[in-house]
Design a protein that fits this description.
Strand order of the largest sheet: 1-2-4-3
Order of helices and strands: HHEHEHEEHH
Shape: globular
Number of strands: 4
Length: about 190
């Protein structure tokens, strides 16, 4: 489910984001819960082209949307402002977003996951394949209900196994694979 007021440029960002969910996240089981909300189309995807202030306001609006619309399982907020293209700037916005979620009283109710085209895990080398588990075609803030995570985790033996599976899978596929799939997604070409 996409924002119905999206422009053609926004539509491309939404399409690329959802293709990434299908072709990377679900295909490689990086998030075992994604398939449960993707098939019945319960993923809301919106595009925010404004600066940090606009992003924070939109994040609040999306939290309210989730609170008022139980048919939306999760929201992906795609960020297209040029300043967010920098991973360091993105991390600054992410830190503010996490703090604001707590200030608004949403801490423990919603979780904020982060994805970026240049994502690098703390302590990882920029060239490590494991970073591709969190690399997306566009910078994203992912809002997830904590209750849903708890419910889905009951079906999983161990959360640590998900993380280890993701690293092993990413290393087995390698950086060139992910680079080509992400490039194809952004250019709207068929993936490998």
């Amino acid at each position: 489910m996409a924002d119905s007021s999206s422009s053609p440029c926004d539509r491309h960002v939404i399409d690329a984001t959802l293709k990434w969910v299908d072709d990377i996240v679900i295909k490689h089981n990086f998030c075992p819960f994604a398939r449960y909300v993707r098939t019945p189309n319960q993923i809301r995807c919106v595009v925010i082209s404004g600066d940090a202030g606009d992003i924070i306001q939109s994040l609040y609006d999306e939290l309210r949307h989730l609170e008022e619309n139980t048919d939306t399982a999760t929201t992906l907020v795609a960020l297209t402002h040029p300043s967010i293209a920098s991973f360091d700037e993105y991390l600054d916005v992410l830190a503010i977003a996490e703090q604001m979620m707590n200030d608004w009283g949403y801490g423990g109710i919603y979780q904020l996951a982060s994805f970026h085209p240049d994502y690098v895990f703390d302590g990882s080398d920029v060239a490590d394949a494991e970073n591709f588990t969190n690399r997306s075609p566009y910078p994203l803030l992912h809002l997830i209900r904590e209750a849903d995570i708890t419910r889905y985790m009951k079906k999983e033996e161990d959360a640590e196994k998900i993380f280890s599976h993701n690293i092993e899978k990413a290393q087995a596929l390698g950086c060139p694979y992910f680079e080509s799939v992400l490039e194809a997604i952004k250019k709207d070409k068929p993936a490998l």
